[in-house]
Automatic annotation (TrEMBL):
This protein's UniProt keywords: Receptor
Classification of source organism: Eukaryota, Metazoa, Chordata, Craniata, Vertebrata
Protein name: G-protein coupled receptor 84
Length: 90
């Protein structure tokens, strides 16, 4: 299995794992579901929106490098402020 296929399969499985509990909860005819279970299932569906970048970063070296560049550039203004404040005598 090539790399792109395995990445697509992983993204799909994450989608299924995140959505199955919510779908089963709503398909079931049981109306006595605890609200906390409903909240957990809803939060799993929202998690699916956030999990793709993590999957890409774990499975792809190019994505890891791009995230590193992006986060380094985004943190640059804060790190320069930190070095100015932490330097004694300035």
């Amino acid at each position: 299995m090539n790399h792109v296929t395995s990445m697509c399969l992983t993204v799909f499985l994450c989608f299924v794992i995140c959505y199955i509990p919510y779908m089963l909860l709503h398909v079931s005819s049981n109306k006595n579901v605890p609200p906390v279970l409903h909240m957990i299932c809803a939060n799993l569906t929202w998690l699916n929106s956030c999990i793709n970048p993590v999957v890409y970063a774990v499975m792809s070296k190019k994505f890891r490098q791009a995230y590193h560049v992006l986060l380094t550039r985004a943190a640059a203004p804060f790190t320069s402020l930190w070095t100015r404040w932490s330097t004694p005598g300035t």
